[in-house]
Specification:
- This protein is α/β, with parallel strands linked by helices and 479 residues long.
- It folds into two domains: 3-251 and 452-472, Aldehyde Dehydrogenase, Chain A, domain 1 (3-Layer(aba) Sandwich), CATH 3.40.605.10; 255-441, Aldehyde Dehydrogenase, Chain A, domain 2 (3-Layer(aba) Sandwich), CATH 3.40.309.10.
- The chain has helices at residues 38-53, 61-77, 79-90, 94-117, 157-169, 183-194, 210-218, 231-239, 265-277, 297-310, 329-344, 374-377, 393-400, 416-425, 459-465, and strands at residues 3-5, 18-22, 29-34, 122-123, 134-142, 145-149, 173-176, 202-204, 222-228, 246-250, 255-259, 287-293, 348-351, 364-367, 384-390, 405-406, 408-412, 430-433, 449-450, 453-454, 467-475.
- The strands form five sheets. A seven-stranded mixed β-sheet has the order 13-14-15-12-11-17-18, sandwiched between helices.
Length: 479
């Protein structure tokens, strides 16, 4: 029997019907959620806004710390259930979903650590005649109502990255998870409330009507908007934000990797395969464009094909599965169209290139797709790795930098001059040396450049964005 989730908006009823949540592997119904109409969204916004503007109701820091500590404890107790649900609704293999849950728990703890270690600062005074007799310092306050719109590919950890910092900083938060994967979000909000967070401080909803969703985001009561998803939607919503609303956008890229002639391929290839095929390539910094020196390109492609052949594709809840389904059947069709276009335009298909089912696609390696085809110009978001041969490193860098997106990049090499040349000249917010582009820990800065995003992610950085630094200047003859 499918589980049912009501709207998590205190005191609200809705008349906009139900959302069916299906498992991406077999398309079976696993849950239903109520969807918010315009009145429900208005109630959520007014509840959050009234809460923020009543400073007597703000949660003191010790209470927030206690809630987050209890949240992490409950999540640890329910580790297996959270991992299975994350795998089932999102399609990420169970072994990787277990890693996601562990990261999510650690992310909640990181919020507590950040609260305990970050503070305001003293602003220098007494440096000239105008500033004599004065002492100045800053103090953190919540920025206002936070609205979070999330993506499907990490249905628990992304929610933690957007919601837990809001709770930690004392911001009332309204979260709209991806329609494909709302269950982990609802579970996390349930756990927050079980841990002692008053319901009004974190509200969750799904919607059918895009106009209703846009109203939620663009309302002038929103202090901060955090978005993870497609660039097309994110930049459109940013253009409609009310004056004064701050925002952070996290989109995708088409991650470039430079493999030099002296790279340790025995070390590199498993990392490239994992970074390219992890979660069926549905990661914003997934390995997509591998630029390999002509002296090693044959070995790179041969060994990538071997690694791809070792990977089990199938039901994500089975422990032996390495690659699960794409999020919906339409994505399988799209990825296949892109691969077919590349092959028909001259790319060499080395493995994969076929639908294994309505929902699964074979791990695919392409050699030298033309620069103009979609697998070379846009984020594939599927289990496809493209390998390109190069002779001069500056040519490889020029091709790597040719796109309007830039996120994380990587270089595999031993020579320090090669490493530093790539680091200094490639368009990226972070460059991994002898590691794949999908490496991330949740306290490091995580930022898309150009069309890939706005602002800096990572839990401490998000907490910084969700606060204001209010300065006090004291004047006294005794200073």
């Amino acid at each position: 029997m499918a589980t049912h989730f009501p709207l998590m908006i205190p005191g609200v009823t809705t008349n906009d019907g139900l959302l069916d949540v299906v498992a991406p592997f077999d398309c079976n119904l696993i849950a239903t959620t109520e969807t918010a109409d315009a009145n429900a969204v208005e109630r959520a916004l007014s509840t959050a806004s009234e809460l923020y503007h009543d400073r007597d109701r703000w949660l003191p820091v010790p209470e927030r710390i206690g809630i987050l500590e209890r949240t992490a404890h409950i999540m640890q107790q329910r580790f297996n259930e959270l991992a299975v649900e994350t795998a089932r609704e999102g399609g990420k293999p169970l072994k990787d979903s277990e890693v996601e849950v562990a990261r999510a728990i650690d992310g909640v703890k990181l919020c507590v650590e950040t609260l305990r270690t970050e503070a305001g600062e003293e602003i220098p005074m007494g440096l000239n005649a105008a500033s004599l007799g004065r002492l100045a310092f800053t103090h953190h306050e919540p920025i206002g109502v936070v609205v979070a719109v999330s993506a499907f590919n990490h249905p628990l950890n992304l929610i933690v990255h957007q919601v837990a910092p809001a709770v930690a900083t004392g911001c009332p938060v309204i979260v709209k998870p991806a329609e494909d994967t709302p269950l982990s979000c609802f579970r996390f909000v349930e756990i927050l409330r079980e841990a002692g967070l008053p319901e009004a401080w974190c509200q969750a909803l799904t919607v059918h009507d895009l106009e209703v969703a846009t109203k939620l985001v663009t309302d002038d009561r929103v202090g901060f908007f955090t978005f993870i998803g497609s660039a097309r939607v994110g930049w459109m919503l940013r253009s409609k934000l009310a004056p004064g609303t701050r925002c952070a956008l996290e989109h995708g890229g088409a991650a470039p990797i430079i493999v030099a002639e002296d790279a340790d391929l025995a070390d590199a290839i498993p990392l490239l395969a994992k970074g390219g095929f992890y979660h069926a390539g549905q990661v914003c910094v997934s390995v997509q464009r591998v630029f390999a020196h002509e002296s090693v390109v044959a070995e790179v492609t041969e060994k990538l094909v071997v690694e791809a052949g070792k990977m089990n594709v199938g039901d994500p809840v089975l422990p032996e599965t390495d690659i699960g389904p794409l999020i919906r059947p339409g994505e399988v069709k799209r990825v296949h169209e892109w691969v077919t276009e590349a092959v028909e335009s001259g790319a060499k298909l080395l493995c994969g290139g076929e639908k294994l089912s309505e929902t699964c696609y074979a791990p695919t390696v392409l050699l030298n797709p033309p620069d103009h085809v979609r697998v070379s110009t846009a984020e594939v978001f599927g289990p496809v790795v493209c390998v390109y041969s190069w002779n001069e490193i500056d040519d490889a860098l020029q091709r790597a930098n040719a796109l309007p997106v830039a996120f994380q990049a990587a270089v595999f090499a031993k020579d320090i001059d090669t490493i530093m040349r790539v680091y200094k000249r490639i368009d990226a917010s972070a460059v991994m040396v002898n590691d794949h582009t999908a490496f991330r820990v949740d306290w490091m800065p995580f930022a898309g450049l150009k069309q890939s995003g706005l602002g800096v992610g990572g839990i401490p950085h998000t907490m910084h964005d969700m606060q204001i630094k209010k300065m006090m200047v004291l004047r006294s003859a005794e200073i």
